């Protein structure tokens, strides 16, 4: 799939016709960043908007005393660099490729020109940026109110949804972690050993882990474990929409094993929030 076809599939480019997309691509860079290479640094002039064709990128910042904090991890189809719409803005964090990554770089001037003359594109872009902010707020909420087990369960369900969307499938029971478990742990606000321990603990809830591959026997078991601890409404969270619909159905299909049913029925209604 070429860059133009890829952009057409992204929600906030819905308002553009083919000539608009072609003009953006003509003024863009398409670069491959090797693993661990810098895409931009904290304090650089914000002059590009980035869309990941493939690969993974972490946004991170470094404190004066040298400590690193990971703000977000993005993969195929994600974009970052919204601050380019502000004149004279700088990047307030670093962006580094976690693996070999092919990225479309849209420059500030063509983006601003498109925003100024295409109201549909402007609206879609604003909606996308708003959802990005909502997602960050939700992740912060999860850090405050969810246990480690609940956060990992939510993460696994989210990856199922993302992979299902990428594959164009109606169902996804097996996922591939998009990046190293160490980074997944940091993103979820826990130590790598805690992340590994929680994945092992989730086996009794029908989760099977093989290296970087995770299989989920029944999504509704994980939904019951984590979704009630989240404030996201069915309107704003794809995961909440799934949970809202399945809550109207039977808890466990009859085809599931008796041991899995037993685990589900014995699940505590309000699990401890300690780092299990």
Topology order in helix (H) and strand (E) letters: HHEEEEEEEEHHHEHHEEHHH
Helix content: 40-55%
Alpha carbon gyration radius: 20 Å
| Approximate strand percentage | 15-25%
Low-confidence stretches: 241-276
The helix count comes to 10
- What does the average pLDDT come to? 79
Report the principal-axis shape.
globular
CATH architecture heading of the largest domain:
Sandwich
Structural class: alpha+beta
Q: Any idea what the CATH superfamily of the largest domain is called?
A: Jelly Rolls
Summarize the topology.
Elements: H1 3-8, H2 18-26, E1 29-33, E2 38-40, E3 48-54, E4 56-62, E5 68-75, E6 79-80, E7 94-97, E8 101-107, H3 108-117, H4 119-145, H5 148-167, E9 174-176, H6 181-187, H7 192-201, E10 207-210, E11 213-216, H8 219-226, H9 238-246, H10 258-265
Antiparallel strand pairs: 1-8, 2-7, 3-6, 3-8, 4-5, 4-7, 9-11, 10-11
Helix pairs in contact: 5-8, 6-7
Could you describe the 3D structure shown?
The chain is of the alpha+beta class and 276 residues long. The chain folds into two domains: 3-133, Jelly Rolls; 146-228, Winged helix-like DNA-binding domain superfamily/Winged helix DNA-binding domain (Arc Repressor Mutant, subunit A), CATH 1.10.10. The protein has helices spanning 3-8, 18-26, 108-117, 119-145, 148-167, 181-187, 192-201, 219-226, 238-246, 258-265, and strands spanning 29-33, 38-40, 48-54, 56-62, 68-75, 79-80, 94-97, 101-107, 174-176, 207-210, 213-216. α5 crosses α8 and α6 (181-187) crosses α7. The chain is globular and about 55 Å long. The termini are far apart. The relative contact order is 0.11.
